[in-house]
Amino acid sequence: MKTATIPPIRVAPAFRGEIESVLEQGESLSEFVENAVRQSVLKRQHQTEFVRRGMAAIQETQRLGNGIDADEVLAQLDAKLAAARKTLAQRKA
Hints:
It contains 3 helices and no strands. The longest helix has about 35 residues, at about 30-65. The chain has helices spanning about 15-20, 30-65, 70-90. Helix content is about 75%, strand content about 0%. The protein has about 90 residues and is mainly α. It has a domain at about 15-65.
């Protein structure tokens, strides 16, 4: 397989020094940069997929009309928090 190159980037000498200071034994700067780029690509792919699934879930909930109103959810959470605080206060008393 033929390889391709990533465009070179200019960085401040101090930053290059920081990068080189964290290289593992036998790891080259090129390997480090390739690994960092791969991780960034995977992160963005995962974020994109997460958002896609979330949007699909919202659309499905709207289509089915079986969602729970945000105010209702917040009220339930507030009630749980109040109950937990009451229990905690009773234990301290």
